[in-house]
Structure formats: C-alpha cells, structure tokens
Amino acid sequence: MRVTRRAFLEGTGAGIGLAALQSLLARDAGAFSSARSGLDREGHHFAPRAKRVVVLWQGGAPSHVDLFDPKPDFERLRGSEVPESVRNRARLSTMTAGQGRYPVLPAIRPFRRYGDCGMELSSLLPHTGAIADRICLLRSLHTEAVNHAPGVTLWLTGSQIPGRPSFGAWTVYGLGSLSSDLPAFVVMTSSDREKTCGQLFFDHYWSAGFLPSRHQGVRLRAEGEPVLYLADPPGYDRALKRGALDDLAELNRRHLAEFGDPEIDTRIAQYELAFRMQASVPELLDLSGEPQSVLDLYGPDVQRKGSFARHCLLARRLLERGVRFVQLMHSGWDQHQNLATQLELQCRDTDQPSAALVQDLAQRGMLEDTLVLWGGEFGRTPFVQGDVNRIDAHGRDHLGSCFSLWLAGGGVRGGHVHGASDDFAYHPAQDPVHVHDLQATLLHLLGFDHTKLTFRHQGRDFRLTDVHGAVVKGIVA
Fold first, then answer.
1. Closest Cα partner for 59 from 153, 162, 160, 158?
2. d(C-alpha 154, C-alpha 162), whole Å
3. 457: closest CA among 151, 37, 167, 153?
4. Do 375 and 392 contact (CB within 8 A), yes or no?
5. How many other C-beta atoms lie within 10 A of the C-beta of residue 341?
6. pLDDT in tens, 106-156
7. Residues 101, 81: contact at Cβ < 8 Å?
8. Do residues 227 and 220 lie in contact, with contact meaning Cβ atoms separated by under 8 Å?
C-alpha cells in the first residue's frame, strides 16, 4: 500500500485533534460491528437479556468486610491474629506483606437485614438496602491483582497489561449504536470531595485498544467544554461548518478509496457525529426539565457539577437517549489510613445516587434490559493496617483473594446472594467467581458467547476474557 511521507505525518498528527472524538458512531455501525465479529443480523449470538450497560466503578476498592460480607465473630476475635494458614495462600501488597502482626478489625458499623430477601448489608448503605430485592450480591469474587492500576485494567480489559480493548469497546463493537446523536460509549469521572484517593483514571480504562477506534469511550468532562474541541470558534456558523464537513468528507472518501484504511471511514463518522453532538450534548446536560421528585431521588449532591450523584442522573439520561454503555468512575475508596473517617463520607456520597439510578430505571421500565454493575477492583483485608488506636491512622490494605460487588437488572437474579467467603472473609468458600467468569457472564447477558466475540490482531483471535472464563449461571435469572 502506497503511503507518502506527507500522509504519514498527517495521519499521526491528526490523533491529537481526534482524541476527543473517538467512538463517534452513526446508526449503521451495528452492521459494521456484526460483520467484523461474525454475529447474526441483530448483533448477538443468542437472545440477550440486556441491551445496555452502566458501570458504577468505585475506584480504590470498597471494603467488603465493612459493607457487604458480615462476620459476626469478628467482634469476639477483635485484635486476634488472622491465622497464617489463611494468609499464606494470598498475595498482599508491599504495604503490609512484611507487617509484624495481622490483628482482626471488625466492621466499623453494624450490619442489618434489608428487603423481603433479608440481604445483610452495612447500615452505612441504607439506600442500597432499599433496593436489596432488586440486586444480586456476589460475595466470592477473586482476582490476581493486588495493586490498583493492574486490578482496574484486568477488570475492564481482561488483562493487567494496558493495550487491550475495554469492556465498553467490546460491547459496542458487538452491538453497535442505538443513537445517531451521541456516542455509543460514554465515560464520566468523579472523586470524593476530600480528594483523599490518589488513584488516577487512565485513558486505557475506556480504550478501544486494537479494535477500530470508533468503539472507544468518549469522556464527558465536568468543567470547561464537556468534550474537547466540540465547540466552534467565534464567528464560525453552522452553515459554514456543514459545508466544510461535506468537503472534508468527500476528501476522506477519496482517500478511503485510494488506501482502503478503515480508520478513514471512522474519521468520517466521527466528524459527522461531532456535528450532531454540538446540539445533543448541551441538551443532555441541561437538567432544568427534570422533575423535583427525580432530583430529590438522587440527593442534594445532584446539583453539584462533577459529583457522582449528578453523573448517575446523567447516566440515566444517556441510556434513555440510546447510549449503549455508560461508565462512571468514582475514586476515594483507597482507605489505608482513614477508614474510620472516610468510609462513612464515601458511602454518603455514593449510596443514594447508586440506588436512585436503579430505582429511576425501574420506574421507566428500563431496568429489565439495562445491566447495572457496582464495584471496584478488589477488596480490603480483614486485618488492620496502621495504628488502630488512632482514628485517623488506620485502615485496611488491598485484598484480591476475596471481595464483593453487586449487579442489578439485565437478567440477573434480584434479592439473591451468590457465593460465600471463609470465616475471615479472606478466600471464597462457596461458588468462587473469578473476574473472567463475571466478564463472561456479563457478555452472556448481552447475548454474546464470550469465546466467540473475538477480533483478530497480530495473528491471534483476542477476546475480553483472554483464554479464561465461564458463565456463572447461578446469578442469571
């Protein structure tokens, strides 16, 4: 294929201006995706239970010991050692691997039963408790990762090493877009007000990897322009913009015919959708038409730009406008030294809006075909890290060998607890679920056989679950 020096330089330089416009997709993208992945005309391997996804990512790893996995005996065992026979089968981070003692620390607040199902959750999560009959709580998850970035990367891309396509990219690759005015995959990030968590949200958490770049997530920013480079410069009216895009599209089509590069076709679609987003994004972000009852449902923080509560409401608005995959990423759960003070604040900021989103979707008849996931990259140790006698100087370290999260809607069993941990919440004791198993299950609910949703790259057929994973049938309704 003939590529001139000028074409090469233009192609590589264009990435700077195009980065904010990745994954801008027209309605015909579903046909493109289906053809690439060998799916049927509807874009599935079999009938789906869900057609859209929202991920409520809790960055830093929420403590399953304090929130989801009650251990009443911990009060009696307070201060006693977690047995070495339990600990020596799991990796720890370097922060506590050489610690001299490993004393049990009970949950900082009592658990209580919620819903008709009697699900036990922390009293720090009353709003989540109010939807207990709708959620499926997994208490037997495990992962190899014990540090944040590799853990998040494994969860969202199937590998601890960056470079693979993200879960959202795989989803829209298979299903295509339901909207002509918004991207198929949208990301929003937020943090606790106190900025206690130093974890970063890297672009590869929503990357298309080696999939066509049209499937990459588009990040909506809380400050400044919602999408970089979306606004026109002063004096540049819509008619002039329309004419310029038409001329540019014609040039791109000529290049496509000459070089056959599918990324040129992606560029045409990106520019066209960006043009439509100039009208659709401001309308999306305008909450003035939302009833007060809905705003009250999400809590007072919904009025603060950039808050997790506001993003949850925007997630519902995105989903009902046809966006396939919404990924909310909220940091602040990495509580090594401030568990006693920060955990309650973090629950206060995230509990009500998380539950409100589920309730809002249910009231609109959307929950049954919307898959909701709430969780983080791993759990926290049952033993204390730091000085337990100082309220501002102790917490829990990372624990990948056992943790919890919850799902709702989209074909999962409501009011159900799947799996169980051992007596120290350290390892799965019943129905263990690996990260790859849950990925396979989520794809199953979307109508995909995870072993067949593949993309050939560098001579190998890649998939989200790598070479692992089995559908967890016990959580499917």
1. 153
2. 9
3. 37
4. no
5. 15
6. 999 999 999 999 999 999 999 999 999 999 999 999 999 999 999 999 999
7. yes
8. yes
137's torsion region: left (phi>0), alpha (psi -120 to 50) or beta?
A: beta
Q: How many CA atoms lie within 13 A of 474 on its CB side?
A: 14
- Domains, the chain, ranges and CATH? 5-475 (3.40.720)
Which 3 state secondary structure label does DSSP give 338?
Answer: strand
Sign for the CA dihedral angle at 91, 336, 396, 335 comes to negative
Q: Are 319 and 364 in contact (CB under 8 A)?
A: no
Quick one: pLDDT at residue 143? 98
Q: Is the pTM of this model over 0.85?
A: yes
Strand partners, 461: 456
Candidates 13, 434, 33; CA nearest to 266 is 33
Let me know: does 169 contact 157? Beta carbons within 8 Å.
Answer: no
Interacting residues of 250 by C-beta distance below 8 A, sequence separation 6+: none
| Type of residue at 111 | F
What is the SS3 assignment for 369-437?
HEEEEEECCCEECCECEECCCCCCCEECCEECCCEEEEEECCCECCCEEECEECCCCCCEEECCEEHHH
Helix (H, G, I), strand (E, B) or coil at 462: strand
For the chain, the distance separating the N- and C-terminal CA atoms, rounded to the nearest angstrom, is: 51
Residue 163, classified by CB atoms within 10 Å of its CB into exposed (0-12), middle (13-18) or buried (19+), is: exposed
Q: Which residue has the tokens 């004096």?
A: 235
**Of 335, 337, 359, residue with least CA distance to 347:** 335
Q: What percent of the chain has pLDDT over 70?
A: 90
pLDDT of 26 strictly over 60: no
Q: Does the pLDDT of residue 247 top 80, yes or no?
A: no
Quote the CA–CA distance of 397 and 416 in Å, as a whole number.
28
**Which two structure tokens, joined as six digits, stand for 260?**
């056959």
Q: What sign for the dihedral angle of Cα 100, 103, 108, 113?
A: positive
> Which residues neighbour 28 within 8 Å (Cβ) at sequence distance 6 or greater?
176
**Confidence label for 246 from pLDDT (cuts 50, 70 and 90):** confident
**How many other C-beta atoms can be found within 10 angstroms of the C-beta atom of residue 243?**
10
Are 164 and 387 contacting, i.e. CB atoms less than 8 angstroms apart?
A: no
Confidence at residue 166, expressed as pLDDT on a 0 to 100 scale: 98
Question: What is the longest distance spanned by two Cα atoms in the chain?
Answer: 75
What local confidence, expressed as pLDDT, does residue 42 receive?
59
Q: Two tokens at 368?
A: 């049954």
